[in-house]
TrEMBL record:
SUPFAM superfamilies: (Trans)glycosidases (SSF51445). Residues 1-21 form the signal peptide. It comes from the Eukaryota. It catalyses: Hydrolysis of terminal, non-reducing (1->4)-linked alpha-D-glucose residues with release of alpha-D-glucose. GO terms for molecular function: alpha-1,4-glucosidase activity. This is alpha-glucosidase. It comes from Zophobas morio.
């Protein structure tokens, strides 16, 4: 071992690693890994990923340093919106397996120290849910389970919807029911009728679904589409947004003051938190967690955590989508810094930050921010304080897949004119395990979405087997580093050193961990002596870096190659 390497090892081993987090706090520094079950692993070779497939790959999670997995919906569903249209909330869809197989999955995960979080889709059911069928038919108990309203009549005497509300998936949010002679509300597809949260029976029925799965041993819920739970009771027309480029069929055409983020909606999240907290009080064990999905402005996002004074708690964390919504391939280092700081400045001290780079609704980070920037952004996400969320495939740098309109499945994009721009199929193609047929997703049946041709170069097996570095090895090294005291409790500061270079510094007493990330196309020399001392060493480097691990950088003059990213430890006196 050369001297420089030796110095680094001394540095590392003298850093404090803390003991296992308290059982109520386990989630605060956890890495959550989103599994998109349909595309993960297809054990019975029918083209659709399944729970047994996840079990077969269960060792991938501890090997990747993941603390918890969350599964996109696996419940009985006509699959109009890939399982986000549920017809039975307490039954696993036969395409994915059975409740028993889910039990096994939970046990297998738990025995490896991995928690399991389910997707809870409370805003709407499938139109094939028995509740909706009974509601359409006017069965007394279910009459008010959904949001029904009488038609209006226009000047020409035609029947028209009760107001101007638009669906997230385009066109009126109302669909006429001949049987019931009324319109029903659907903020998403017409096959996804909105539940009526002003009906206390519905509220209790949905709480009972949470309790049902808590009893089965799940560790929490990702709560889908929360902003849409309640709507204005008087069904008032929404004002125009006046955003350029939209017409009256587009969701963006209106300003959603009467259908999103109502005070009653926040209150419902706080009630659900009470349900999981009560469960822990009564049954013991580690915290069961809630994470909420709300694409909202920063102040509204914070309200989903609870009130600023903590007197009422909501989600353990409300997803921070800013690294998705603020950034694109042309973003500067300053844009990255602004996005991070916007979050850090807004979050009350009592709450825990989280960082998300991708999910099944947004283009993969490798595609959105550039395949050569994958390591840099994975480093950024892992080194920032709080929770890190990984979408399956990010750990290997998987890019969007290639999907034609004919192959597309996303109900929000069934129109050739908008397919390329809005389809979410691209980020949902099968996981790339190895270089065998269908990337190891199955043994040859046609997958529900095509496997990306890129799997020959980008797959888990190659990235594990390589003698050199790989996105996956970088990801594993980052996962290990996350239990370091500097990352658990160190201060955080981030700045742009040049137009393309981001510097993130975590500091705890005399120890620092610093990220230097050149996200640009050009090599650049930077002087980081303000933030990095001579007693530093490179701990993790992006796969395109030719620097020597363990060696120090010369703080006054570091040459960073295009897209190079370095995690440096620094022990300044
Ligand atoms: C959430 C899901 C998305 C789904 C929508 C309607 O945004 O992430 O995939 O289409 O809710 O359920
Ligand atoms: Mg299958």
């Amino acid at each position: 071992m050369c001297l420089k390497t030796f110095v680094l090892f001394v540095t590392l081993y003298s850093l404090t690693y803390s003991a296992r987090a308290d059982s109520q706090d386990w989630w605060k520094h956890a890495t959550f890994y989103q599994i998109y079950p349909r595309s993960f692993e297809d054990s019975d070779n029918d083209g659709i990923g399944d729970l047994q497939g996840i079990i077969n790959k269960i060792d991938h999670f501890p090997a990747s340093g993941v603390d918890a997995v969350w599964l996109s919906p696996i419940f009985e569903s006509p699959q109009v919106d890939q399982g986000y249209d549920i017809s039975n909330y307490t039954k696993v869809d036969p395409a994915y397996g059975t409740n028993e197989i889910l039990n096994t999955l939970i046990e297998e995960a738990h025995s490896r120290g991995v928690k399991v979080v389910l997707d809870f889709v409370p805003n709407h059911t499938s139109d094939k849910h028995q509740w909706f069928i009974d509601s359409v038919n006017g069965v007394e108990e279910y009459r008010d389970y959904y949001v029904w309203a009488n038609a209006k009549v226009d000047e020409d005497g035609n029947r028209v919807p009760p107001n101007n509300w638009i669906s997230v998936f385009k066109n009126s949010a109302w669909t006429w029911s001949d049987e019931r002679q009324q319109y029903y509300l659907h903020e998403f597809a017409s096959a996804q009728p909105d539940l009526n949260y002003r009906n206390p029976v519905v509220v209790e029925a949905m709480k009972n679904i949470l309790r049902f799965w808590l009893d089965k041993g799940v560790d929490g819920f990702r709560i889908d589409a929360v902003p849409y739970l309640f709507e204005n009771e008087d069904l008032l027309d929404e004002p125009l947004s006046n955003l350029p480029g939209y017409n009256s069929t587009d969701y963006e055409y209106l300003d959603h003051i009467y259908t999103q983020n109502l005070p009653e909606t926040l209150d419902m999240i706080y009630q659900w938190r009470q349900v999981v907290d009560d469960f822990v009080t009564e049954n013991g064990g580690d915290a069961r967690v809630l994470m909420t999905e709300a694409y909202a402005d920063i102040n509204t996002t914070m309200l989903y955590f609870g009130t600023a004074d903590g007197t009422r708690l909501g989600a353990h964390f409300s997803f921070n989508f800013n690294l998705i919504t603020d950034l694109n391939i042309n973003s500067t280092a300053q844009d990255v810094v602004d996005s991070v700081n916007k979050w850090l400045e807004a979050i009350p001290d009592i709450y825990t930050s989280n960082w998300v780079l991708g999910n099944h609704d947004n283009h993969r980070v490798a595609t959105r921010l550039g395949p050569d920037n994958v390591d840099g952004f994975n480093m950024l996400k892992s080194l920032l304080p709080g929770v890190a969320v990984t979408y399956n495939g990010e750990e290997i740098g998987q890019e969007n897949g290639e999907v034609s309109y004919e192959e597309g499945q996303d109900p929000s994009a069934r129109d050739p004119d908008i397919f390329d721009a809005v389809s979410r199929d691209f980020e949902r193609t099968p996981y790339q395990w190895d270089d065998s047929v269908n990337a190891g997703f199955n043994t040859g049946a046609k997958p529900w979405l095509p496997v990306s041709e890129k799997y020959h170069e980008t797959n888990l097996k190659i990235e594990i087997a390589t003698a050199g570095s790989s996105h996956y090895k970088v990801y594993q090294d980052l996962a290990k580093l996350r239990s370091n005291e500097v990352l658990l409790s160190g201060d955080v500061a981030i700045k742009a050193v040049t137009e393309d270079v981001v510097l993130l510094k975590r500091r705890y007493e005399n120890d620092s961990v610093v990220l230097l990330f050149n996200k640009g196309e050009e090599a650049v020399d930077v002087d980081v002596s303000e933030d990095v001392s001579a007693r530093n060493g490179i701990l993790i480097k992006s796969i395109n870096s030719t620097k020597e691990l363990g060696a120090p950088v010369l703080p006054a003059n570091v040459t960073l190659a295009a897209h190079e990213a370095l995690v440096i430890t620094d022990k300044s006196a």
